[in-house]
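Input/output pair, single chain:
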Amino acid sequence: MDGLGKALKRSRELIPMTLRQVEESTGISNAYLSQLENGKIKKPSANVLYKLASLYNEPLDSFLAAAGIIEDYKPEKSRLLSASPALAAEELTNEEEKQLLDYLKYIRYQKSLS
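Output:
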């Protein structure tokens, strides 16, 4: 999976939404979304990325940069880190941030079973 695919999948799972739910919300086909997340489509249109960024509440520039459409993008701290003053003060490594996001997915999964 490439950088864009990973970013799209991570953002979708944080919501959390299925590919079918994203299709219903954006009009982008489930099959196309799957190909994006699996890296089979490398450069989707800016319009597709705009729809996904809006739905996922992510900066459009981060998806445009991941797709190689724009360069020199300097990302801000993630939504997760900026949402918490305690976490925003910490300098987390990429691995620590990934572990926090994975744990959040686990908590949401457990909640969905209840």
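The chain has two domains: 1-74, 76-114. Residues 76-114 form one domain.
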